[in-house]
Design goal:
The chain has helices spanning 4-15, 44-57, 161-166, 188-193, 217-230, 330-335, 359-365; strands at residues 40-42, 68-70, 87-93, 98-104, 108-114, 118-122, 125-129, 134-137, 143-147, 153-159, 172-174, 214-215, 238-241, 256-262, 271-273, 277-283, 285-290, 293-298, 302-305, 311-314, 322-328, 341-343, 355-356. It is built from 7 helices and 23 strands. Helices cover 18% and strands 30% of the residues. The model has no long low-confidence stretch (mean pLDDT 95). It binds 1-hydroxynaphthalene-2-carboxylic acid.
């Protein structure tokens, strides 16, 4: 029972929208991160089915602009966000379709999943995307996509939309022209910057975003195979970060991307970081134990790892490699001095599996 003076003070404070810290919930100052983002996995069998049907039913009319199907993390109260900071989607283009030009301050990356003849033009620079290619779309750069072949195309998008919106920083603009005038030669950035240790001598490096618009799969795969011959991380196995060739730093300010190979028979140790990540299974099958829940995955699946949640990867196959692509918000945490990481020290660094994720059961429990 509060004494009348206290009661009076608190009720007057409340009327004036003042909240004393000593009465605030523990949530104002938790002792460690309490992510609302939950570990989750979307099956490719479902995503690809939705994408194909959306391709038949939904036109890419102006206003719609993109046939992108966002992954809505069930922990985020119905927001169309994969994690607290990242928007992730599967985007589908029918053959000979155009997704008209627009620009926004959210920064985007694309990872090509399937299809021939699809392109994205980013600020006049037209890039054809083949399976495994990784492309960047820096903020406020005009971009339109299209498909010139007889095939549909499908890729994964990741954007910093939730972060951008949280910061009250979103701007968006449609272009008067659906399709941009192409001002660079095809693959010009690959020809100029694609051998990262060598750069055009007469140009001063522009360091904010990677000058390389697309990281071709052939090069990425060669780098993975090379690294696998000599070194691996106990937590991530054969893991590579895509970098700005001028700085060795992440390709953009708010997102970094990785490609990693989990070799047959490898079971990595668990660690956790102050960041969140969206993973896409490029090839193979395996499992990731996230916060004590085992998520089995196969080619095409997409899963998320929330902040400060232990995770470890397994490839139980006898001879098949597994390849994971991921987009992570790490550069934001690092830039703001908030990044931490920690290895699990109990049970020899492995988590105890409490349950196996079953999407049907998880959906039923909502
Ligand atoms: C966007 O511009 C694209 O250009 C995809 O492909 C997804 C999600 C939110 C806001 C803008 C694209 C997007 C997006």
């Amino acid at each position: 029972m509060l004494e009348p003076e206290f009661e009076k003070l608190y009720s007057e404070m409340e009327q004036c929208h003042v909240k004393p810290l000593w009465l605030a919930e523990r949530s104002v100052n938790p002792s460690q991160p309490q992510p609302k983002t939950v570990p989750w996995l979307w099956k490719w069998s479902q995503l690809s089915n939705f994408a194909r049907r959306a391709g038949e039913l939904v036109t890419l009319a102006r206003g719609g602009d993109r046939r992108a199907m966002g992954l809505a993390n069930p922990g985020l109260g119905g927001a169309p966000y994969a994690t607290n900071t990242l928007w992730a989607a599967v985007q589908w283009l029918n053959a000979r379709e155009v997704a008209p030009a627009h620009r926004h301050t959210a920064q985007a990356i694309r990872f090509m999943i399937d299809g021939q003849g699809a392109y994205t033009t980013v600020q006049g620079d037209k890039i054809y995307l083949e399976r495994g290619d990784f492309a960047i779309n820096p903020p406020w750069h005009w971009h339109d996509h299209g498909s010139e072949g007889d095939e549909s195309a499908v890729w994964m998008d990741a954007l910093d939309v939730p972060l951008n919106n949280y910061l009250d920083a979103p701007f968006f603009e449609h272009s008067a022209q659906d399709v941009q005038h192409v001002t660079a030669l095809i693959d010009e950035s690959v020809l100029k910057y694609g051998i990262g240790q060598l750069r055009p001598a007469w140009e001063q490096p522009a360091v904010r975003y990677s000058p390389l618009s697309v990281y071709k799969w052939q090069v990425t795969e060669r780098a993975l195979n090379n690294l696998a011959r000599v070194a691996a991380s106990p937590f991530d196995d054969v893991a590579l970060e895509y970098t700005n060739p001028h700085t060795g730093r992440p390709v953009m300010d708010t997102m970094t991307c990785w490609i990693q190979m989990i070799r047959p028979g490898v079971h990595t140790k668990a660690h956790r970081q102050v960041n969140s990540a969206v993973y896409h299974v490029v090839e193979g099958r395996g499992a990731t134990i996230i916060g004590g829940i085992r998520f089995d995955w196969e080619q095409g699946d997409i899963f998320v790892i929330p902040s400060w949640t232990y995770h470890e990867h397994l490839n139980e196959s006898k001879g098949e490699r597994a390849i994971l692509f991921s987009a992570q918000d790490t550069p934001v945490l690092v830039a703001l001095g908030k990044y931490r990481e920690e290895a699990l020290t109990t049970s020899n660094g492995f988590q105890t599996v409490k349950e196996t994720f079953d999407v049907e059961k998880a959906l039923a429990y909502g």
